[in-house]
Amino acid sequence: MFIAYLFCRLIKNMKVYILSTGNISPQHSMDADAFFQSRIETSDNFFKAQEPDYTTFIDSKMIRRMSRIVKMGVAASTTCLRNAGVEMPAAILTATAYGCLEDSATFLRKMIEFDEQMLSPTAFIQSTHNTVGAQIALLLKCHHYNNTIVHRAFSFENALTEASLLLEEGVSPVLVGAIDEITDDRHAILSRFGLYKKDSGNIAGEGAAFFLLSKEPGNDFQAILKAVQTLYKPEIEPEDIGRFLAAHEIENETPGLILHAETGHDKAKEKNCQVLKTAFPDTLEFSFKSLCGDFPTSSGFALWFASLLLKEQRAPVWMHGLKFPLKNIFIHQHDGLHHSFFLISSS
Amino acid sequence: MNVPSFVAGMGIVSAIGNDLQTNLDSLCEERTGIGTMHWLSSARHSGLPVGEVKLSNAELATITGLSDRLPRTALLSCMAAKETLIHAGWEKTNALRTGFISANTVGGMDKTENFYKLFSKDTAAGKLADVVYHECGAVTELVADYLGIQHFVSTVSTACSSSANSIFTGARMISAGLLDYALVGGADALTRFTLNGFNTLMILDKDLCKPFDENRHGLNLGEGAAYLLLASENGLKQLGKKPLARITGYANANDAYHQTASSPEGTGSFLAMKGAMDKAGLQAKNIDYINLHGTGTQNNDIAEGTAISILFDKGFPKMSSTKAYTGHTLGASGAVEAVFSVLAIQHGIIFPNLRLETPMKEFSFQPVTELMRNQRIQHVLSNSFGFGGNCSSLIFSAA
Questions:
Q1: What is the ipTM of this complex?
Q2: Which of A8, B147, B194, B329 lies in disulfide reach of B151, CB 3.0 to 4.6 Å?
Q3: Quick check: A65 contacting B, CB < 8 Å?
């Protein structure tokens, strides 16, 4: 059964260079030195992003009109492009599971409160799922390829697959971003579903992580994305990991670190979530969701974290047991229904 | 494109019919599906004409076997997706890889509206069952699970161009050898959220819409779902079917002008059409028919028409907007019109642009106003442009 899933997503000898990144998250991710020095923790059951001073990215008149998710997206993508010294990407792909929740809720609440009267279009205009990708294109005056993928915990993974196919077609560099926001309503609703119960260790998260991807290494690059695999409602066995590696012709790539998505939530104790641990019993593992919280596009944060460690070849002061040189990192993102695996390498 | 994608089957539910044949009949008999609001309930705008699917949620549930408590978008999606697979003769097998790439813009918003009636006053109130399928992706998964498709599941949401983008995501994956079959298209149900949203933008016509007419006053919203089963050469062989058409070109561009308005010169529209023709290796003179985005708003029709004037200045192909039949089905419209484009090729028919009385004075071309049969149609260009500047064009060619 697994093999059938596997070959579906097989991009032979995938080698995608991550030229640069830009990430707004609950950590000091806009400043690598600060991130390496100190880790932010929370005693709440939600983890809000450390937002930058937006005036260094966006005209102050425009800031007022933008919702938080758009500001985060614009600032993270601008940082990513600046870090690579690239003005115009050849394509913009945005991944978001929930879309622009704040504006959707604003319009919905007013529609109900005022019984479909006296509504202003602003919140509706900004409620569509493609608003972040559209605003990035608008500010860059970028007429190139532009798409928005909105498939729950596969949004970012499917955007990366699309990016790698665009790169194969010669469209390069491609800007890809994973973005979702915490709103009061989202938190209230998901809490009622029991996601963030006390003592579960599971906390809500948010963030905007952008990547500039290329087929060529350029003058400098962060890391290489070698494989992305999504599995929808799978039954996974540890030996499937071996098959995954073999299918991607990366058998010799033993990971130096596994970034997993366990947060202490009950779901995480399921067998499917333990496969990497079983497959690589000696490899150090670390929960990336302990840094960014739980949200469907959090694999964007994990990819940013992995890229940074591979580039810097040093450990944050708050992370122990990491051995260098660090060559490969495995990411396993999951929420019970959706599983995805990434392999990222330094060379 | 290294590997061609063939259209092996289609399915559709729209204001002009609950299946493919009825849609074709309505198109040929010039029957519009836009009329008085019946199934959608709106406190203030029940007088606005809409293109509703002529089935209640309960009827949709009976037809599909799903629960009538699910979002209407999922019920519509399921109905059209099922017809597509039957039409293509596809059966679930693990031997070949099938993906489901759907588009929508509202997800489970119709149920979320119910939820917010209580939740907006008290965050401990409202039935949680009403928000389980709020996400666009959750609607896609309901249908994927129903059909038994697991290999690859994805959802695209780029406003009015959503399902054009889902169609070429599938074509690209087949082309790259990642899938053998791709069930592609989209669905959107009418909701109070979108009705009120478009109403605040003041782009809804209070009467029946008149795309590309000098005296047009806006669009009518519609709803529906449409899908195509794309197949690789190998996939087609397994089905033992002759293809209905091929996808030969597609392109996506951004207008980068305004969040909701198109640039007067139609930059995004021009780039999408030009890009699709380049991808297909075709020139303007090779296009036999354009299925226009043609919403009936002042802004869209002038922008789209301007781009066409530039691109086809040496000779205009026949063209028409079919939105006067179906209304603007938003996330479904790219797929609805892709199905109409393939029907045009299959049957050699060009559908009329209904209710066009006075052609726009800005242009030297005129859309077709009467049904044309026995046409030799090799290549059809289908346009989908939307909010956020997202512009996409597809080209279908005779197989």
A1: 0.97
A2: A8
A3: no
